[in-house]
Amino acid sequence: MLRTIAERNAGLISPSGLEKLVCTERAWALHLDKQQDMEKIHKSPINSLDLDPVEARYLLSGASNQVIAIHDLQNTSGRPTYTSVVVSSLDRQSRHAHKYSVETVMWYPQDTGMFTSSSFDKTLKVWDTNTVVPVETVKFQGKVYCHHMSQVSTTHCLIAVGTSSAEITMVDLKSGACSHVLRGHKNAVYTLSWSPINEYTIVSGSADSKALVWDVRMAKSCILTLDQHNGNTAVCGSASVHTAHNGAVNGLSFTADGLFIVTFGTDNRLRLWNVENGKNMLINYGAINNEQKKCLNIAVSSDLPSDIMFVPHNSNIDVFCIHTGARIGRLIGHYNDCNSVVYHPHHQQLYSAGNDRNILVWTPKTMNIFTYENYLEDLGKNKKHNIKSKKPSALDLMQDTWSSDED
Fold first, then answer.
1. What pLDDT was estimated at residue 13?
2. pLDDT for 23
3. What is the pLDDT of residue 6?
4. Nearest to 168 by CA among 152, 150, 144, 151
5. Residue 116: beta bridge partners?
6. Distance of CA 131 to the CA centre of its chain
7. Structural contact between residues 194 and 160, judged by C-beta atoms closer than 8 angstroms
8. pTM of the predicted model, to two decimals?
9. Which of 97, 134, 359, 378 has the largest count of CB atoms under 10 Å?
């Protein structure tokens, strides 16, 4: 780090370059935060997390017992150690709550005054954050596994919804009705993700082992089918033709530049794809256990020169370099399966939740930092030292303490 600062002072590194190097070093050294804790409100497995894209201050969580909570991540206590409090929540006893497990929660991209949730009760709900009351409820024919909104949309307000009926339904927030349906999968749609650079491009993953790329303006068919064999039928059987994985696709994410897609399947494999031509980049990430039959959230860094991703692996979280496949590390802290991870781009922090009903905070492990624990320890030592120094010794009692004017 000192060498990097010296190079910056010499003009060898630009300010933005120094920032990226520092952010990369921080993101590569995450560990369980001992100073920030999350207020516990969930009494069942947590399925989904989402960080608000406006301030990156409020964390949204949804659990299997229908409870939805909003956590304030800002430290307002004035102390190094603090607990992120729940500022608002929806109890399962509320008449507005979902009837079954909440599978996905998501903030409205442009405003924290609204968020959405979807559930196995076959509904999608749009909520007013201030009152925690649904302003719109959309019903579907099958279970809702996931939904997603575009972060860069300027011409539409569509929510893509994946259900067990093998369809992707587009819900228009302006009208509160379904605008059109994308058909191409043969089984339940587990996961969806909009492109971060194109407001009309969306990718879907399904239990039929396929990952499809869509242009929502062309509802007749998808524009790309991701093929794990890159069209080489000689090395695959008829059953795996035009499939992204040899099992269900239940996790996917775009890279920050929107040029690549990462998919995660129940065949215990991660794959990287080129968005432009749908080519499998053939990066080997090794085997990552995945037996979930629902959406599994993957987090991808958005502020680093070299993209890294955080992938739930049983009760752990594996950290990979996206373009090389190298495993940077493994975060160990949960007592049960991890279901969702969210990356904080401003602080290079990670938030994770799972079946152990805990939300864990992972923060960069900085070196040579005087922590609050060190402060308390040194403070205690100083107090003991002061107390001992105040006790007079036998020699002090026998010394002459008289003074004269001449002195």
1. 74
2. 75
3. 73
4. 144
5. 106, 126
6. 25
7. yes
8. 0.85
9. 359
The list of the chain residues with pLDDT below 50 reads 367-370, 393-395, 397-398, 407
Residues 4/9/13/18 CA torsion (nearest 10 deg): 60
Rounded Cα distance, 40 and 89, in Å: 12
366 alpha carbon, distance to own chain's centre:
22
pLDDT for position 289 = 94
Using alpha carbons, select from 219, 117, 243 the residue that is nearest to residue 168: 219
Structure tokens at 374: 């060190």
**Closest to 148 in 3D by CA, of 204, 208, 88:** 204
Residue 113's pLDDT is what? 93
What is the Cα–Cα distance from 70 to 61, expressed in whole angstroms?
7
340's tokens = 């969702």
Residue 220: the pLDDT is 77
Would you state the pLDDT for residue 375?
56
Q: Compute the chain's Rg from CA coordinates.
A: 26
**At 68, phi and psi to the nearest 5?**
-120, 135
Q: What are φ and ψ of residue 297, in 5° steps? A: -80, 135
- Report the 3 state secondary structure along the chain: CHHHHHHHHCCCCCHHHHHHHHHHHHHCCEEECCCEEECCCCCCCEEEEEECCCCCCEEEEEECCCCEEEEECCCCCCCCCEEECEEEEECCCCCCCCCCCEEEEEECCCCCCEEEEEECCCEEEEEECCCCEEEEEEECCCCEEEEEECCCCCCCCEEEEEECCCEEEEEECCCCEEEEEEECCCCCEEEEEECCCCCCEEEEEECCCCEEEEECCCCCCCCEECCCCCCCHHHCCHHHCCCCCCCCEEEEEECCCCCEEEEEECCCEEEEEECCCCCECCCCCCCCCCCCCCCCCCEECCCCCCCEEEEEECCEEEEEECCCCCEEEEEECCCCCEEEEEEECCCCEEEEEECCCCEEEEEECCCCCCCHHHHHHHHHHHHHHHHHHHCCCHHHHHCCCCCCCCC
**The Cα angle at residue 202 between residues 201 and 205, in degrees rounded to 5:** 155
